[in-house]
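Re: weekly structure request thread

Next one in the queue (115 aa):
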Amino acid sequence: MKGFDCDGVITIGLYPGPNDIIITGRSYEEMPETIKMLDKMGIRNPVYFNPLKFSEKTRVLSSKHKIKILKKFPEIKIFFEDDPIQAYEIDTHLPNVTVVHIVHELTEKENVRHL
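Done, posted below.
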């Protein structure tokens, strides 16, 4: 079982396998458009959304959300992440999880709407 970020990982073509999960920094408010996007890509894995409102989330708070969810799944040993801040935070707080840092400039790292 592996964990995948959404923006900058799945959105650039790295898809989860059938037993993997998606842990996104996207707010629960972005759930409808995110599920629609994933469905169009044929991805129906469980998705764990950031519990913060869109206007409240930050990159560091998104990493805290991901860490919290990853702690619930000790069987996840690999997490794919493109945000350097979030990759660092996850790597620092979860030494048993290998963070695969996907380096690119294809997606925005800051809080943007995905309509």
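The longest strand covers residues 21-27. The two ends are 29 Å apart (CA to CA).
Next request, please.
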